[in-house]
Amino acid sequence: MGDSLVGGMTAISLCGDMLRRHRELLELPLGIPKHLYDNDISKQSKGGQKRKMTESQSRYSIVERLTQSKLDIISAIANLDSDSKVKKQRVESLKEDLKDLESSHKAELERAKRSVQKEIKGAERDAKNSEDKKKSKKEGYERKIKVIDEALDKIEEISKTAPSN
Question: Distance of CA 21 to CAs 1, 14, 37, 83, Å?
Fold first, then answer.
C-alpha cells in the first residue's frame, strides 16, 4: 500500500497529511461502517494512555483505509476519463481518415476525369484531322477522275475523227 505513488506522494504520507490537516477526522462520526473500526477501539481499556494510543492508531488506520478508498475511486474516475478520451480521439481519428479518404478519392477522380478529357480532346483532334485528310484525298481523287475523264473525252474525239481501216 505504501509502495504505490499517487501524485508524488505515497498513500501513507497522504494519510498523515490528511490527519494533520483535518483534525476533525480524528473524531469519527457515527456513520462510519462498523467493519472500518479496529477491534481495539470498541474495547474499554483500563490504562488511559494505552487506550488513547490504541484509539489514535485505530483512527489513523481508519483514515488510512478511507483515504486509500478515496484514492482508488479517484483513480477509477481518472481511468473512466482516460478511456472516454481515448475513444473520443479514436472517433476523431476515424472521421479524419474518412475525410482523407474522401479527398483522396476526389483527387483520384479528378485525375481520372482530366485523363479521360485529354483522351477525348485527342480523339476529337484525330477525328477532325481524319475528316480533313478525307476531304483533301477526296478532292485529289476527284481531280484525278476529272483528268481521266478529260483524257477519255479526248481519246473518244480522236477516235471519231480518225479514219477507220
Answer: 21, 10, 21, 33
The DSSP element (H or E) to which 10 belongs, if any, is strand 9-10
Is the entire prediction scored with pTM above 0.85?
Answer: no
Question: Which residue in 75, 55, 53, 64 sits closest to 16, CA to CA?
Answer: 64
CA dihedral 73, 75, 76, 82 (to 10 degrees): 150
**DSSP classification of residue 35:** G
- CA distances for 82 relative to 7, 47, 79, 86, 97, angstroms: 16, 52, 5, 6, 22
Could you identify the residue written with the cell 481519246? 155
Neighbours of 25 (CB within 10 A): 17
pLDDT in tens, 91-147: 999 999 999 999 999 999 999 999 999 999 999 999 999 999 999 999 999 999 999
Residue 14 near residue 67, CB atoms below 8 Å: yes
The amino acid sitting at 165 is N
